[in-house]
Amino acid sequence: MAGEAQADCLFCKIVAGEIPSTKVRETEHTLAFRDINPQMPTHVLVVPKAHYPNAAALADADPQLAGVVLAEAGRVAEEEKVDQSGYRLIFNTGSGAGQTVFHAHVHVLGGNAGLREKLV
Question: Which Pfam families match (predicted)?
């Protein structure tokens, strides 16, 4: 069921502390941690602690939590000091879009002057 932790979900296990991660920020409702395969100098994932399979499901079921996730992504960008030079927030929704972990998450990417060229 949406919102409930899934035993087979990698990010639910990270949220529960069963799998280690390099935490960047944590709130009552979100966890931000470094991607294990960074695509940019700053590559942080922000996930809701509640399980939703993708961003669309999260926004549909809990628009307020979706807003919290986006706000936390902005705070991560600020703390990582990429808010001035520019950064991207990316949600991959569905395997055709590159989603490999089916727990809603946003990628915070930045820290490189070539950001536009690399990701366009």
Answer: HIT (PF01230)
What amino acid occupies position 27? T
Quick check: 113 pLDDT over 70?
no
Written out in words, the top-level CATH class of the domain with range 10-119 is alpha beta
How far apart are alpha carbons 25 and 23 in whole angstroms? 6
Domain boundaries, the chain: 10-119
pLDDT over 90 for what percent of the chain?
A: 84
CB 45 within 8 Å of CB 106: yes
What's the sign of the alpha-carbon dihedral 59, 79, 81, 101?
negative
| Mean pLDDT within 37-55 | 96
- Select from 17, 25, 63, 67 the least CA-distant residue to 46: 25
Strands 106-110 and 30-34, how do they pair?
unpaired
Catalytic pick from 51, 103, 105, 107?
A: 105
Contact between 108 and 89 under an 8 Å Cβ cutoff? The reply is yes
Q: Is 103 a catalytic residue?
A: no
